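[Discussion] Sanity-checking designs against the backbone

I'm trying to build intuition for which residues belong where. Below is a structure token string of 90 positions. I'd appreciate it if someone posts a full sequence so I can compare it with mine line by line.
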């Protein structure tokens, strides 16, 4: 349910939130004050700043070497062969 709610918000909104959890529920905080209030109330045990994680992942992905499709050998397994045969039969 929490994942669906986050997915509906879109990428831009995710960068400004911190997710907090007490092990049973997930809370969405959009400011430092909300995080502090949650922790002071004893509800927040684990938190993750989604925007920072997003930036780190983007940076890591940008550093990965690029493979071009022409450089990758085509691997056909049994399932791929069956699917191709079924496509040709239709």
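Best answer:
Here's mine. Compare freely.
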């Amino acid at each position: 349910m929490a994942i669906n709610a986050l997915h509906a918000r879109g990428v831009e909104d995710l960068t400004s939130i911190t997710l907090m959890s007490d092990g049973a529920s997930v809370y969405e905080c959009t400011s430092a004050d909300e995080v502090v209030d949650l922790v002071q109330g004893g509800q927040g045990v684990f938190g993750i700043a989604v925007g920072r994680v997003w930036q780190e992942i983007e940076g890591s992905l940008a550093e990965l070497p690029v493979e071009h499709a022409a450089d990758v050998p085509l691997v056909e397994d049994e399932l791929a062969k069956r699917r191709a045969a079924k496509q040709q039969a239709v």
